Amino acid sequence: MPSFRYRAIDQSGHILEGYLDAASSAEMMTELERRSLLLIDIEEVNRSSSARRVSILAGSAPSYEDVTALTEDLAALLSGSVALDRALQIIYQSTKRRALSSIVYSIWEVISKGHSLAEAIAAYPKAFPRTYVKMVEVAEVAGNLDATLQVIAQDRRRQSELNHRLAAALAYPCLLLLAAIGVFFFVLIVVVPQFDQALVETGNASRASEPLVFTLSRIAVGHSIFLAFAGMALAGSGSVAARSDKAKAALISLLRQIPGFDTLLMQQRAVVFCSTLAMLSRSGVDLPTALRLIRDLMRDANSANLVAQVLADVRDGSRLTDALARTDFLPAYGLQIMRVGETTGEADKAAWRVATYYETKLDRSIARATAIAGPIVLLAISAFIAWIIVSVITALLSLNELLL
Fold first, then answer.
1. Is the pLDDT of residue 339 over 70?
2. So what's the pLDDT on residue 312?
């Protein structure tokens, strides 16, 4: 089927541009008239070039922050009594980010054909997760799409800030460790060989009794090119792993074995579980569906398996808090608050209180972990450098004794 590029004016006087597939130009004009668009010009385009264009746009996905901003803008426009299709047109015309504008335009096209917003965004699972789609679907039926989008945007902002705080807590000691490794190899490859050469020229230093630092220095100098390539390979692998969900899950499982980090990750898991459960419950999503969506949100396999077990127990007729108690998924305090809320019929409010409580505790834990990890790494670096200095000075003193 041929592809046509068109320019048209909508009912508000704005100029729209786009591509549509149609059997003929007459059919294309009929479709534009059905959408209440006044045609300016129309041009048949090469199908392969159009396909390449779509492929290029589809290959670039909008960022998490872009989707959050889109959600906020859409909620604000809908709250101002702007129709959904018109709101999407406004956002499309105002955004300057190509990846986001292409998705907005595609969503507008789907909606203009009579489909729902949930159906339109479901085609982009990387940008709109299943929890997002399900909440929109329920909100469209209930008629409170603007309020639901505002809730989604607020939760995404909060989750983004939480993830940034966690990343910052991990980044600080990691950067210190990388700096220590860099200083260590600089000393081994540049500084220590200067003293090593002085010892070798005397011919009196015994290789059997020399400090270990000189042996390490000779190994590092002899394999400096290999070490450089290995460092670049590790940096590249780390950059790729940072974008991989499997790598993130493996890192979380590893950190869970470290004392202190297990508590921090448990609090973060409680925040994600309870805040998402509260948000889905307020939107009218039934409990089994909410648990299934939360299971898909868990980044590590252990947490996902625990939620799956809770879901199985709930489907068998157990109460949510009883299922959570059997899996030891939530801390004792959070579980008691959830139990009270479930008894009084306010489970969503109880879940939100638990999420708020553990988010506050998580902030304190992050600040405490950062305050402790930094000095520990600095002390380790200082001890390592002191060992190198003492080793070199000891070797030089022994050389002076031999000369005397």
1. yes
2. 92
Q: Which helix (H) or strand (E) holds 38?
A: strand 38-45
- Top pLDDT among 19 and 149 is at 149
Burial of 297 by CB count in 10 Å (0-12 exposed, 13-18 middle, 19+ buried)?
Answer: middle
Same domain, 87 and 152: yes
Neighbours of 334 (CB within 10 A): 25
Residue 354 lies in a domain: no
Residues 13 and 90 in one domain: no
SS3 203: coil
Q: Which domain holds residue 10?
A: 3-45
* 36 lies in the same domain as 98: no
In this predicted model, what pLDDT tens digit does every residue of 204-224 receive, in sequence order?
444 444 567 777 788 888 888
Residue 397 is assigned to a structural domain of this protein: no
What is the side-by-side strand order in the sheet with 38-45? 15-21, 3-9, 38-45
Element (DSSP H or E) covering residue 6? strand 3-9
Give the residue among 374, 362, 372 at the shortest CA–CA distance from 166: 362
> Domain ends where: 157, 172, 204?
157
- Predicted local distance difference test score (pLDDT) of residue 51: 40
- Our count of domains for the chain comes to 2
Kindly state the helix (H) or strand (E) to which residue 229 belongs, with its residue range: helix 224-241
148-178 pLDDT, tens per residue?
898 889 888 888 887 787 777 777 777 877 8
List phi, psi (to 5°) of 13: 90, 10
Residues 32 and 85 in one domain: no
As a whole number of angstroms, the distance between CA 273 and CA 320 comes to: 13
Give the CA angle between residues 126, 154, 252 to the nearest 5°.
55
68: domain CATH number is: 1.20.81.30
Question: From the CB of residue 279, how many other CB atoms can be counted at a distance below 10 Å?
Answer: 22
